[in-house]
Fold this sequence. Notes:
alpha+beta, 5 helices, 34% helix, globular
Amino acid sequence: xxxxxxxxxxxxxxxxxxxxxxxxxxxxxxxxxxxxxxxxxxxxxxxxxxxxxxxxxxxxxxxxxxxxxxxxxxxxxxxxxxxxxxxxxxxxxxxxxxxxxxxxxxxxxxxxx
Length: 113
């Protein structure tokens, strides 16, 4: 597990391991952020734009893999019987992703950014 801000900044603010290098080498399965939540979307957008991972692999870093790491078996992927925590993203080819709506437990919590 490494920090999404590390990916966005291009490295650690303390000179530690660069998350993007670890992701490219298959050594990081989860991206998280404890202080700047927008970095998670920015990080996956950057990783995809730079060809480090596919969109599906990037999303897994912040969703499926993160849920599994926390043993939250009821979420992290869109499947029947799973909790409906969803982020609706407008992500045209070649452009940055933009959040359009957020659902938590199947209830719309934010809409129309």
